[in-house]
From TrEMBL, chain A:
This is LAFE_0F08856g1_1. Residues 12-116 form the BOD1/SHG1 domain. It comes from Lachancea fermentati. Pfam families: COMPASS-Shg1 (PF05205). InterPro entries: BOD1/SHG1_dom (IPR055264). It comes from the Eukaryota.
From TrEMBL, chain B:
Residues 597-607 have a biased composition (Acidic residues). InterPro entries: COMPASS_Set1_N-SET, Nucleotide-bd_a/b_plait_sf, Post-SET_dom, Set1-like, Set1_fungi, SET1_RBD, SET_assoc, SET_dom. This is Histone-lysine N-methyltransferase, H3 lysine-4 specific. Catalytic component of the COMPASS (Set1C) complex that specifically mono-, di- and trimethylates histone H3 to form H3K4me1/2/3. COMPASS recognizes ubiquitinated H2B on one face of the nucleosome which stimulates the methylation of H3 on the opposing face. The keyword Nucleus applies. The lineage of its organism: Eukaryota, Fungi, Dikarya, Ascomycota, Saccharomycotina. It comes from Lachancea fermentati. Its main location: nucleus. SUPFAM superfamilies: SET domain.
Length: 133, 996
């Protein structure tokens, strides 16, 4: 066990949470689940379609892109797309960065997290609390 | 003036001699009549008898006379002559002042002669000729002399003498037996003008340097008596050969003179060289010793001062404290400290210390505003580092370009070693949470942060990356790709067209690939005609032996196997008169497709019987079509491809440099013999078409009756078969030897050469079978390489050798130069080794010529017996090989030659170097001896000097291809006796026929 976990029980708890698989599950939900109540396309698909659309326009602008080394070209394009919080992927109505932020701001996320963590705490006996108060 | 003459300038005896010269006729001899008054005064002093005395004596005389006056009764003592010795008298004295007689009166002669006027003479300047010229004039004593300089009109005449602004040194006067006075110094003192303390010089160097001025008899170097360090002061005494007295002084003079204006630099020292006069050495030594002592004193003082300073600094050991803000980091460990002042002055960085102290176990190097702290985990490490490096570690100042010694200050740690980690963990106290909620909130914070990162990463790596990669897949853009492909295709076509055009330009006439399609389109009729003509010829094979033979000859030209397209550009067209490939191809093509409708045309074209006509037709067709060609034409239309594909594969048109027959040619095609064996006939029938024709022929042939009816048909057939077999064998062997069958003329008429008797074979025929005649300017492939297969022809050799020769020309030259430089270096190394070993060892004698040798080998020669062959192309003027052998004197060589002749060694391997040296390579020698004579040689033998000896070296006269035989002109003397003459077999066009 690393030093940090020994020092900080909260960290330990977080790690435990990850080890149980909850972390990945939440992440997956974020990517796959519909972001908004209004919009049905999940984030993942949205990004994918946007990426291919952007790349297509790029290729239209410069046809030689597809005849170059695919690996390095895609890396360069990727770099462009990642700039400024995925601004290139944004459409008129939807901003990827804003969406991600919104997901994190959802209150149900924290409540959901809290629930699982409390459950976790209860099941394990490793956590001790100072009983000064 | 009289005072000047009389008193100070002349020494007493010379004064007397002057007196002598003017004695008697004193006045006459005075130039310009001066000094008569002084002469009178002098006479008086002579009369007084004191003129032999030195000045003080004279003064004392005056004193005496004054005493006389005071005491008149005292008698004046008679004068005493000081230098009254006989020796002096004889040499210098002429007057006895006591007796008042001339001493040598009898010996003296009057100077009066006829030449000189009796009254004496004066020299006057004569200006009559324009230039002043001294002339002698009789003196008239009654005339008053005048000073010519006092005249106004004296013209300062031109003089060639230069104005001297300073004193000029008297030329050195050689010291010899006659020299008076002490000898000049024979020692020089060499002492340093500028001394570099860090440098040192060996005595032998000085000695060696000065031995250049003369023979050294004594060499002494001086040391400082205080420190026993060399002063670099040298005393060198010169000596010389026994007979020459002047030699050492001359050496000293030379040595001093050489360094008078420029000082003497010997290995970094600047020396002054002076002659050792009056113990000059000691003065110099004392001066230097004093200087050294002073210097030592100042250094000592400086040291003391520093020590004092150190003791002041270190004395009260102000224990440096770790600054507050570093306490946490240093954590009570031991540190070495370098003050900021020092660090900033020299612009030192932490990296410098890190690098320099890499071998110590420091844990951190901290750069703080108060200085640099090197933190050690262990106390022992810190102390070890301090002991080893303080005031010893040398760093290069970044500001001052000088090396510095770093002084470290140790700062004692407060903790015991090993306690550090405990404290570390103690410091980071375990976080305590009071409630569950707190812990959960903290955990949520962690998780959310992590989640953000993870999500971001996922989007980047898992979503966008692969998506972009997939999106870039060319399959997603079929229209772009197809467009691109089309473009590429176009480009390729253009390129092809350009290639073809290029090729066509290179060999326009030999072969027209465009006839494949173009001629087919444009001149179908023409080609048809040709075809039919050809067919007719084929038929006539069986009717008429002669025409059949013609055809065979014609076909044999088109023998070469098909070659790939790429080779076409390199190929040279060999023959223009053969039937183009298109004919045969088109032939079958058209025959199959439209044989019936051509019957009428058959008649039309039947009148073409001649090959020349046929060729004309063909070339016409090609000429018409080729200029019109455009790129589009080369792309076969689909319809055309299909049409082509319809043709059976055998007959399909092919691209080849030369037209080729569909079936490979049979040996009997090439043979000029008219007889065909049954076997040949059988193999000649290839397919149904042939059979059909044969049938037709046989049917027609029934009328023909042979003159001599064959009685035994079986035997006749067998015989024919045998003959053809043998013929094939012979042909094969000739092929193997000569790469072509022999000319028919060479065939024996009677079947046996011996029975034929003598007949002359013309040179043109010889060229067909003598290899060196056949390829006079091509290398013979007599050298067998392991890698070469038996099928490699000399043709190929020639080609690639020519190519390599062409390409490698320049690199060859440069590389050979580099090689030679390398060899020179190597040789120098060897020489150095030799010098170290000292003795004349045979082991290390290096033949530098072997290094420059070209790869050559010997093989059987077309000229004579063995020959030498180049394995690689050799550029002109390159050295090829040295002619190595025993070096003999002329008589020995003559004897050997006779002995060799006697013992049956016919070949001469004796090479004359000069009139009394011959190199014999008969028994011991290199392969250069195999080089044959040629009247048109490729090489030349040169006699060059290498390290004092004459060597024979073979150089290339012209560029030589690989596998070419090397030859040079033997340059034998012309033999008058015809029987003695050696025939030359070199085969060169300008061959003289004889070697000598």
């Amino acid at each position: 066990m690393s030093k940090h976990e020994e020092i900080d029980p909260a960290k330990k708890l977080a790690d435990q949470f990850k080890k149980q698989g909850h972390f990945d599950k939440i992440k997956q939900d974020m990517l796959l689940g519909p972001i908004d109540n209004t919009d049905s396309t999940p984030l993942q698909d949205f990004i994918k379609t946007r990426v291919s659309a952007v790349v297509q326009t790029m290729v239209k602008d410069d046809e030689s892109l597809i005849f170059k080394n695919r690996g390095s070209t895609s890396a360069l394009i990727e770099g462009q797309l990642l700039k400024d919080g995925y601004r290139k992927l944004d459409t008129d109505t939807i901003s990827v960065d804003a969406r991600i932020r919104k997901i994190f701001e959802q209150p149900q996320l924290t409540t959901q997290l809290k629930e699982t963590l409390v459950r976790e705490l209860d099941t394990s006996e490793d956590y001790e609390f100072s009983t000064d108060n | 003036m009289s005072g000047y003459y009389g008193k100070t300038y002349y020494p007493p005896h010379s004064r007397s001699s002057r007196g002598y010269s003017s004695h008697g006729r004193r006045n006459e001899k005075r130039y310009n009549g001066h000094g008569s008054g002084s002469g009178a005064a002098r006479r008086k002093s002579y009369a007084r008898g004191d003129h032999y005395l030195a000045d003080e004596h004279r003064y004392s005389n005056t004193y005496v006379s004054s005493v006389e006056k005071m005491q008149p009764n005292l008698i004046r003592p008679s004068p005493e002559l000081r230098y009254a010795s006989d020796n002096f008298k004889e040499k210098f004295h002429y007057f006895d002042p006591i007796k008042k007689v001339l001493i040598h009166k009898d010996d003296m002669r009057s100077w009066v002669s006829d030449k000189l006027p009796s009254t004496g003479y004066v020299i006057v300047q004569d200006m009559t000729t324009g230039r002043s010229r001294p002339i002698m004039k009789q003196r008239h004593p009654e005339q008053k002399a005048t000073d010519p300089r006092s005249k106004d009109n004296v013209v300062a005449f031109q003089t060639t003498r230069k104005l001297r602004s300073c004193l000029v040194q008297v030329p050195r006067i050689a010291y010899d037996v006659h020299s008076v006075g002490p000898p000049p110094p024979n020692e020089v003192v060499v002492y340093p003008l500028v001394r570099d303390q860090s440098n040192s010089i060996q005595d032998s160097v000085i000695k060696g340097y000065f031995s250049g001025f003369g023979e050294i008899s004594h060499f002494e170097s001086f040391n400082d008596p205080n420190s026993a360090l060399p002063l670099y002061v040298y005393l060198i005494r010169f000596t010389g050969p026994q007979g020459i007295l002047d030699a050492p002084y001359r050496s000293v003079y030379k040595a001093v003179k050489a360094h008078e204006t420029k000082s003497c630099f010997i290995s970094g020292f600047k020396f002054a060289v002076v002659a050792n006069k009056n113990g000059h050495v000691n003065k110099i030594i004392n001066k230097l010793v004093d200087e050294n002592a002073k210097q030592a004193l100042t250094i000592k003082k400086e040291l003391e001062r520093q020590q004092k300073k150190n003791s002041v600094q270190t004395g009260p050991p102000a224990p440096k404290k770790i600054p507050k803000d570093l306490e946490k980091v240093v954590n009570g460990r031991y540190c070495l400290y370098v003050p900021r002042k020092f660090v900033s002055i020299h612009g030192l960085k932490t990296e410098d210390f890190k690098v320099k102290l890499a071998k110590y176990k420091w844990s951190r190097v901290l750069d703080h505003f108060s200085g640099i702290y090197i933190v050690f985990n262990e106390k022992t490490d810190a102390y070890a580092c301090h002991a080893m490096e303080s005031e010893k570690l040398v760093l290069l100042s970044r500001r001052k370009h000088s090396s510095l010694k770093i002084r470290f200050q140790i700062i004692e740690g407060t903790n015991q070693p090993g306690a550090i980690f405990d404290k570390d963990s103690k410091n980071a106290t375990k976080k305590q949470y009071n409630t569950k909620d707190e812990i959960v909130d903290a955990a949520i914070d962690y998780i959310l942060n992590d989640l953000k990162d993870a999500l971001d990463r996922d989007i980047r790596r898992r979503l966008i990356g692969p998506a972009v990669f997939d999106a870039l897949n060319p399959h997603n853009y079929p229209e772009i790709v197809s467009k691109r492909e089309e473009e590429e295709k176009k480009k390729l076509d253009l390129k092809k067209a350009a290639e073809i055009r290029l090729k066509q330009e290179s060999n326009t006439s030999s072969f027209d690939i465009f006839n494949l399609y173009g001629a087919g389109f444009a001149n179908k009729k023409n080609s048809r005609k040709v075809t039919l003509k050809r067919k007719r010829n084929d038929e006539s094979v069986f009717e008429d032996g002669n025409s059949a033979r013609d055809l065979h000859v014609k076909r044999s030209h088109a023998s070469a196997a098909m070659k790939p397209m790429a080779h076409l550009l390199n190929e040279e067209s060999i023959s223009r008169e053969q039937t183009p490939f298109i004919d045969s191809a088109k032939d079958s093509d058209l025959e199959l497709s439209s044989s019936s409708e051509e019957n009428d045309e058959y008649e039309e074209t039947a009148d073409f019987t001649d090959h020349a006509d046929q060729n004309k037709l063909k070339s016409e067709s090609s000429e018409v079509t080729t200029p019109e060609l455009e790129t589009e034409k080369f792309i076969l239309s689909n319809a055309r491809t299909e049409e082509l594909l319809k043709i059976p594969e055998k007959y399909r048109p092919k691209i080849s440099p030369q037209p080729a027959t569909i079936f490979p040619e049979e040996p009997f095609d090439l043979c000029q013999d008219k007889k065909l064996s049954i076997l040949d006939l059988q193999t000649a029938i290839k397919d149904d078409e042939d059979m059909h024709i044969l049938n037709k022929l046989v049917n027609f042939d029934t009328k023909e009756i042979p003159e001599k009816p064959v009685t035994n048909i079986d035997y006749y057939m067998w015989k024919l078969n045998k003959e053809s077999q043998r013929r094939n064998e012979v042909l094969a062997s000739q092929e193997q030897i000569n790469e072509a069958g022999f000319d028919n003329i060479l065939k024996s008429v009677s079947g046996c050469f011996k029975a034929d008797g003598f007949r002359r074979i013309p040179d043109s025929i010889k060229a067909s079978y003598l290899p060196h005649r056949r390829k006079l300017h091509q290398p013979l492939n007599t050298v067998l390489h392991h890698q070469d297969g038996p099928e490699t022809t000399s043709e190929m050799h020639r080609e690639d050798s020519e190519k390599t020769e062409f390409d490698n020309h320049t690199p060859e030259a440069t590389s050979s130069r580099v090689n030679r430089a390398m060899n020179r270096r190597f040789q120098q190394d060897i020489e150095a080794q030799k010098a170290i070993i000292g003795s004349e060892s045979e082991l290390l004698t290096l033949n530098q010529l072997t290094k420059r040798k070209k790869p050559v080998t010997f093989a059987r020669s077309a000229i004579h017996n063995w020959g030498l062959y180049a394995l690689e192309p050799i550029a002109a003027k390159e050295m090829i090989i040295e002619y190595v052998g025993e070096i003999l004197r002329q008589p020995v060589a003559e004897m050997r030659e006779k002995r060799y002749l006697k013992s049956g060694i016919g070949s001469s391997y004796l090479f004359r170097v000069d009139e009394n040296t011959v190199i014999d390579a008969t028994k011991k020698g290199g392969i250069a001896r195999f080089i044959n004579h040629c009247c048109d040689p490729s090489c030349t033998a040169k006699i060059i000097r290498v390290g004092g000896g004459k060597r024979i070296v073979i150089y290339a006269l012209r560029d030589i291809a690989a596998n070419e035989e090397l030859t040079y002109d033997y340059k034998f003397e012309r033999e008058t006796d015809d029987e003695e003459r050696l025939p030359c077999l070199c085969g060169a066009p300008n061959c003289k026929g004889f070697l000598n």
